[in-house]
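Subject: Sanity check before I submit

Could someone independently write out the structure tokens for this chain? I want to compare against mine line by line before I put it in a report. The sequence has 380 residues.
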Amino acid sequence: MSKKIRLGILGGGSDSLIGILHRIASAMHDKYQIVGGVFNVNHADSLAFAKSIDLPSHRVYKDLDTLVDKELKLPQSERMQVVSVLTPNFLHFPMAKKLLENGFNVICEKPMTTTIEEAKILQKTLQNTKSVFAVTYTYTGYPMVRQMREMVLSGAIGKIQKVDAQYYQGWINPIIHDAKQRSSIWRLDPDKSGISCCLGDIGTHAFNMIEYVSDLKIESVLSDLNFVYKDNKMDVDATVLLRLNKQAKGVICTSQIATGEENSFIVKIYGDKAGLRWEQENPNYLFLMEEGKALQVLKPGHTYNSELALDGTKLPPGHPEGIFDAMGNIYKGVAKAVSNEPYNPAEFPTILDGTRGMNFIEKAVESHHKGNIWIKIENT
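---
Independent answer below. Compare away.
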């Protein structure tokens, strides 16, 4: 019997952008074995996909209810231990809740739910279990993001004065300007995506990243959203001013109509001693900026990096690692938790991060609709 963690997957089939990322990440550190799941709402398509990746068909189920029922009838030594939820946003909450209620550990895509109320229900559900719950804010898995966090915590840049996160994409441009397309995709459908498109999809990454690297809490927000067309109910561009604890201030700029941009996620944090900058499209470089000194460039794999950063680095210096590796580090952290091994809490985002992400989305949308006013974020 394999000692690997038995992994099930919901969603992530052949037409899924995110599915291959999770499958490769789970295999990366030899900690998991995919044993089955529900890969598509159409059972025949799910079976065909399972066959294409060489999975046996007997644990490819028609729906989640069947999965839970059948898996719980298996001996504990055989049943799925962790289930990854890779479905559209509106399914995250009911699926995660049912899995937790039946004793499964959960890895959930973001945003964790579609409302803050759902997020709080999940928190309470988790409290009544011994399960592990992770939210895939993937970028926290990059070694140099982890190095950024450790340098801030060590006081290397001094007292934080300003934080700045910019996340620009242009992918929705062809869709938003076509009336038929913008009324048909799930990301612009509030019933499936929740109350936000841009903030819910990429703004929540920026929010989480700022709190992760700064170890501060965003306490209130003032936002201005852009919908482009009156018949479009979902934001596709957003600017959010931030007030954090310890007198720090900042801004989050996110857009899916930034023409020509691919996945430009840039995080900057400025202290009274120095500043740090990281760019997702060049993830192996962390820039240290100090007044009157030459710009320093830190790279992964070197002994000058922190233990947390080095633990997330698989290769020697000079061998680039990327998004698959970042997600792999999150799966690696969850594996440690599930196996009751020692781990750093910064190795994977938790349900608390997911709840704060939903809090941010709702308060930012509320700020816009109330006339661009400051709205406090609950301390969840």
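---
OP: Matches mine. For the report I'm noting this point. The chain has a mean pLDDT of 96.
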